[in-house]
Amino acid sequence: MNKSKIKTILALTGTLLIGFVLGMLVTVQIHRAQMKKFRSFASREGFGNWTLHVVEPSPEQREKMMPVIKKYAAKNLELRKKYRNEFINLMKDYRKELYPLLTPEQIDRLQSLSRSRKGHPKRRMEKHPSAPGNMSSPERHENRPPGPGFPFAW
Predict the structure, then answer these.
(1) Tens digits of per-residue pLDDT, 82-110?
(2) What is residue 148's DSSP assignment?
(3) Contact 154/84 with Cβ under 8 angstroms?
(4) What is the pTM of this model?
(5) CA–CA distance from 137 to each of 83, 88, 91, 126, 133 (Å)?
(6) According to DSSP H, which parts of the chain are helical?
(7) What's the rounded Cα separation, in Å, for the pair 11 and 5?
(8) Where is average pLDDT lowest: 28-37, 75-84, 132-141?
């Protein structure tokens, strides 16, 4: 094969690789922006800001709307807290029944999978009380919010 064909193939391959990497980076940024919008709706401020942005009220309407927005933003926040606490309790009960049926290696695999989730902070996961060598208490984390997408973060 002559040198010009090799250079052409390398140039095309390099261009494809650069395009692939750039496409992945753009996709990640778009996903993050969408998730940021979604998460902002969960806060009191985000709940109200979203409504005001969509409705574009006059100053008089805004003044009348604010008590209603604040009332339902507080209810939304309370509902989310209640869900989070119920989810935490559900996962504790799940572990209490599931972990005694598993070997220590299986428990470690579940916990490793939980740690390796994308976006999950790198922290040591607590072992279940039935796992050998447990030196810590899972109850320390009872108020930690659940991680997105995977129930074994506890």
Answers:
(1) 999 999 999 899 989 999 999 999 998 88
(2) T
(3) no
(4) 0.46
(5) 23, 15, 15, 7, 12
(6) 3-40, 44-55, 59-98, 104-116
(7) 10
(8) 132-141
